[in-house]
Amino acid sequence: MKQTAREWKNTLIDQGRVSILSEETGIPAPVVCVLVAKGIDTAETIERFLNPRLSDLSDPFLIPGMRQACDRIWQAIDQKHNIVIHGDFDADGVTSTTLMVKVLRQLGGKVTAFLPHRINDGYGLSQKGLERCFNGKQVNLLITVDCGTNAQTALKYAAARGVDVVVTDHHEVSGITEPVAAFVNPKTINNPSVQALAGVGVAFKVCHALVKAGLACTRPAVSGIDLRDYLDIVAAGTVADVVPLLEENRILVRHGLSRINSKPNYGLRALIEVAGINGVIDCYHLGFAIGPRLNAAGRMGSADPALELLLSDDHDQVLKIASELDLMNRERKKAEEVVVQECVKLIDPFFDETKTFGIVVGQQDWHIGIIGIVAAGLCGKYRRPVVVIGFDEEGNGRGSGRSTESMDIVDVLKDCKDLLVSFGGHRMAAGLSIKKNCYEDFCLRFNQLCMAKLKDLDLSRVYHVDTWVDFREVDYKLLEYVNKLKPFGLSNPAPVFGTKCVDIIGSPKKIANKHLKMTLASGGTQFEAIAFEMGDRAPPSGSIDVLFSLQENTYMGRNSLQLNIKDFRAAEKSKIYPD
Fold first, then answer.
1. CA distance 197 to 241
2. Last residue in a domain, options 436, 454, 472
3. Domain match, 474 and 444 both
4. Which of 339, 353, 366, 429 has the least C-beta neighbours within 10 A?
5. Rounded to whole angstroms, how far apart are CA atoms 234 and 393?
6. Is the pLDDT assigned to residue 204 strictly greater than 60?
7. How far apart are CA 286 and CA 301, in angstroms?
8. What is the mean pLDDT of residues 301-321?
9. Cα torsion 288, 291, 297, 301: sign
10. Using an 8 Å Cβ cutoff, are 546 and 529 in contact?
11. Which CATH number do you get for residue 93?
12. For residue 279, how many other CB atoms are within 10 A of its CB?
C-alpha cells in the first residue's frame, strides 16, 4: 500500500465548462470549479445549490410507512391517548425527541418523553429501557425517534404489552422488522435526497407529514404551527450526528442556521452563551461547541438534562442546565484524554500501515459514554475504521465504531455477527455488544474484513486541492461565494485552494506554542495566514507552495481576509498551475 506524508492531489475539472459557467453566472471561477467537481454543472443546479429552498424538500409521504404513521398518530391525538416519544441519549436522539414532543403537543397530543440511560439501558430501543418506560404508566402509543429499526426484542415486548409502536429512524435495516403500527425509515427507499437524513431529519419529515395531513382535513390545531420555528433544533441534531451535508440535510441545516442566528430555542441560546460564542453561529460551532455539550449529559450519565434544556422556556432554568452541561463536557474531555492515551499505547506497538486496516481496542472499565468520541478521534488519527470497547468485570463489552467514508462499518459488522451479542448503526458509526471470550477473534476478523475492502485504496493523509488560484483572484467576492457553499461538513468540506511560489514576508510567529502565523505575498498581493497545529513545522527557506481555505478575520473591530493554511511545502520551480 502506497504511503506518502501529506500527498497533494488535484481535482480534475473541465476548465472549459468552468469558464462558460463563470461567465454565464458571474460566479468566480474558483468557486465554479468546486461546484463542477461535485457534478453541479448547470446554471440551474448551481442556483439550487447556492440558494437552497425549503420548497425543494421532497414530499414526506414518498417515504414508505409515512401515511400509516400519520394516521395512527392523528388517531392518538384525536382520542387523547397517552403518547410516549422514545428517543436516544445522543444529540440526534435528544433533538429528535424535542422536536416530536413540541410539535405533537402543539397539535394537541398528550405527550411525554423517554430517553434510555446509556449505562443502565444500553443503546436505543431495548426491553430493559421499555420496562422502565412502561413502569406504572398507561402507554397507548410509543413513537421512536432515532432508534427502533433493528430492535426486535423490544418491539416484541411492546406488542406483548399491547402498546402500538410507530418507528421513525435512520439507521441501517439489518433484517425483518417486527410488525408495528408504522415503520418510517428513509433507508427503505432508493431516494438519495432523504437516505442520509439524521434521526432528527426523519422526525422533521414525520412532523411535516402530520401538518400536511392536518391541513388537508382542515384541523384547527394545524393552522397555528410553523415548522420553520423548529429548524434550529433540526440543524443542531443533524450536524452533531455527522451526516452528509448535501441534499435535504443541506436545506435543513442552512435554514436552521438562519433560525439559530435570529431567534434560537432558549436552550440552544443558553448553550451558546455558556460556550462563549460570539458572532455568527455556523456548523463549526454546532459540531464542536453545541453538539458536545448536548451529548455530554448522555455520555456521562442521563441525557434527561439535555432534553429538559431544549424543552424549557424558562430563562433561568436553561442557563442553570446549560452550565451543568458545560461542566459535564469538561469532565468528559478529561476522561476522554485518559482513554485516548491508553488506546494509543495499545495500538502503536502493533500498528503497521501495510497490514493494519481495521483497529479494535478494548479494556476493562473504560467509560462507555466516551468510547464513541474516542473511536472518532482514533479513526481520524490512523485513517482507518476503529472500534473501541469497554468491558465490565463480568466480561460484557460495549463498543462503538467509527469508519472512514471509504467503508460501511455496518456491512463489516454483519459479517461478524456470530461473534457479537448485538450491533447496529449506519455507514460511518455503529454500536455493538460483545463477550470478552470473542474479543480476540473479533479483532482478527474485523481487520481481515477491512483489509478486503480497503487494501487497494490509498489510506495516506491526502490533501485534495479543489483548484489552484493566483493571489489576485482572492478577494471579498470570492469569499462571498465561498460562504454560499456553506454549510460545510461531511461530504461538503470547505474548499481548499492552492497557490504556488508564495513568499513569506518576515519571520513566522508561533502562537500559543502550537500555531504558526505568517504573512504571505505573491505578485504584489499579500495576506495574513494562520496554520493551526503546525507550530512544530519550520517553513522551508525560499518560496513555498501553500494550500488554504479562505475566511474573514475580525480583530479590534477591523475585518480582513485571512488564509487558513492546510499545508505547505517548498515551492516547485514552475509557476504553471496543474490542470
1. 10
2. 454
3. no
4. 353
5. 39
6. yes
7. 22
8. 96
9. negative
10. yes
11. 3.90.1640.30
12. 8
In one-letter notation, the amino acid at residue 322 is A
Half-sphere exposure of 439 (CA within 13 A, CB side): 18
Sorted by sequence, the CB contacts under 8 Å of residue 94 that are 6+ apart come out as 87, 88, 115, 237, 294, 298, 303, 306, 307, 310
Query: Contact 135/43 with Cβ under 8 angstroms?
Result: no
Q: Which of 280, 310, 325 is the last residue of a domain?
A: 325
* Domain shared by 469 and 448, yes or no: no
Strand 110-114 vs strand 141-145: parallel, antiparallel, or unpaired? unpaired
Tens of pLDDT, residue by residue over 274-290, are 999 998 999 999 999 99
Say which CATH number the domain at 381 has: 3.10.310.30
Cα–Cα nearest to 363, from 389, 338, 337: 389
What pLDDT does residue 1 have? 31
Rounded CA-CA distance 381/375 in Å is 10
Query: Is 34 among the domain residues?
Result: no
Digit-coded pLDDT (tens) for 218-246: 899 998 899 999 999 999 999 999 999 99
Domain that holds residue 513: 463-570
399-412, pLDDT tens digit by residue?
999 999 889 999 99
Entry field: residues in the chain: 579
Does the pLDDT of residue 4 top 50, yes or no?
Answer: no
pLDDT > 70 in the chain, percent:
98
Classify the C-alpha dihedral 264-268-273-279 as positive or negative: negative
Grid cell in block for residue 501? 511560489
Cell output for 63: 417515504
Query: Does 310 lie in the same domain as 167?
Result: yes
Model-level pTM? 0.91
Q: Which three cell numbers stand for residue 114?
A: 423517554
Q: 221 and 359, same structural domain?
A: no
Amino acid at 466: D
Residue 57 is classified by DSSP as S
Q: What integer is the mean pLDDT of 317-327?
A: 98
